[in-house]
Amino acid sequence: MLKVLIVDDEIKVCRLIQCLVDWEALGLELIGFAQDGLTALDYVKQYSPDIVITDIRMPNYDGLDLIKNSLEINKNIHFIIISGYSQFDYAQKAIKFGVDDYLLKPVKKKELLQTLQKLITKHQALKDNLSEKEEMKKQLTFTEKKLKRNFLSELLEKSTITADSSNPDEINKHYHCNFVRGNIQLLMIQPVIKGSNTDSRVYEFVLSKIRDTVAEDLSLFSEVISIVRSDYVYCLINGTNEEFSRLRKQLKKFRTTILELKDVIGDFRLFIALSSEKTDLSGINDCKREVRIANLNKLISGADLLEYTNIKPAAVRSEQIVDGKFRKEFLFNIETLNHIQQKILFDKLKSDIKSVGNLTGQLVFDVYKDLIDLFKFSIRTYGIIIKNENLLETLMYDFFMYCSVDEVFDTLLQRIDESLDTWTAEKKLENSKPIRLAKQFINENYNQALTLEIIGDKIGFNPTYFSSVFKKETGMNFVDYITEIRVQNAKQILVDTDKSIIDISTQVGFNDIKYFTKKFKKSTGLSPTEYRKLYS
């Protein structure tokens, strides 16, 4: 039997969890309670529990410490964390440690039983020493749920199925499904998590919760299959007209359940895109196209339930917004690195888009793609080197995480400006390298007879060009720069030695004592003699 330890600083919570489950019937042995992390850790060391159900926040030694230190003792312990609201920072860290599930207080019997049964299955797989791939293969081969998910995954990827798509009996025979004669509909569900909580493990946790919860909350349908693909959950439903009449009520329940995860991961949005209803699976390609179009409309409506049937074509096309005049101004602003004018142009673009009749998310996407293509063209045309090789790919990926028209184009402009700023800074640094070499040579040889020709030859510039670039980079002409270097060195020698003024003049590169005195006084406001008396 698997051994279970319950940890909570409130004994009544421990007793409640004990009463929720028939432990022996599940093949589990409840080995005891602990009311703090240190006591629980002693249990782990002494009794080696297989499953630990623990609160997160406890006095002195909290659940996070317990999880971390217990896994160092036995990496195969399964953890179920329980927590009240307003503890999402702790819960999120626990998820990243690799806990198996998170349950909100008050703990519900059904959720606890489902989690325990899942862990029993998982533990059995580990006990049988099956690799993850072998376990996946086994599940796909023998578990009906896995077979159905595989079916939907292939359907979405290949858009074709072997069986007669209009005959539910044929589909059920081939894919072990439960389709009935009625309608089908595809849902695409997207969580959008902003800020610092976008860790991939947090997304995986949320997506798996969505996949399992939507299948449960829509279980009234004859068939429900849900899978995770990329950053979305796709859910295929089939049923009678009576079942479909209850869809929106069930989706409202589902959305409420999922949004409770805000207490774990912080604020996020949940968008549910619905295709139109189809009579059979031969319409799956249209369903895929429709949910993607519907999902884009989150940029326009601000709604969380996005139905394709409510979308009408936009009154204009993208090329009417990103027209010849816009392209010319955009490219000119890139060429001249004029961020201010580019922002003015983008502000007008947003205003033009928002004024479009029947504005759709698809039109916003088309305009966005046109701007990306225009930026690509400007990069090639003006020889701009973008340090981030994945920038353009990232820009396209990030589009689908935006929730408003302003966010789309403000972020795009910011990314373009940042990439141009990085390029110009690196280009400036590259161009200034010869001048840095020239300055280094001057500082090492200031007491020699130096000319534009000598320095230019050292760095590979002709004298005239070197003189121009040197003044642009330093703000001083060549002669004034050398004179200043010589004066600065003379000041140090005056203070540190008893050498005569004429010897110092010659040592730093001046051949005329009067000229040296004149330049020294111009730089410091003092003659060499006065300077020595004042500072030595």
Structure summary:
Helices cover 60% and strands 12% of the residues.
Question: Which key features would you list for this structure?
Answer:
Alpha-Beta Plaits, alpha/beta, Rossmann fold, 536 residues, 10 strands
CATH topology of the largest domain: Alpha-Beta Plaits
Note the gap between the termini: 89 Å
Gross morphology is flat
Structural class by sheet pairing and helices:
alpha/beta
Q: Report the CATH superfamily of the largest domain.
A: Reverse transcriptase/Diguanylate cyclase domain
CATH architecture label of the largest domain: 2-Layer Sandwich
Q: Beta-strand percentage?
A: 5-15%
Note the total helix count. Answer: 26
Task: Please tally the β strands and state the result.
Answer: 10
Instruction: Please report the first level of CATH classification, the CATH class of the largest domain.
Output: Alpha Beta
How would you describe this protein?
- The model has no long low-confidence stretch (mean pLDDT 89).
- With 536 residues, this protein is of the alpha/beta class.
- The protein has 26 helices and 10 strands.
- The strands form 2 sheets. A 5-stranded parallel sheet has the order 2-1-3-4-5, with helices on both faces.
- Helix 21 crosses helix 22.
- GO terms for molecular function: DNA-binding transcription factor activity; sequence-specific DNA binding.
- Keywords: Coiled coil, Cytoplasm, DNA-binding, Phosphoprotein, Transcription, Transcription regulation, Two-component regulatory system.
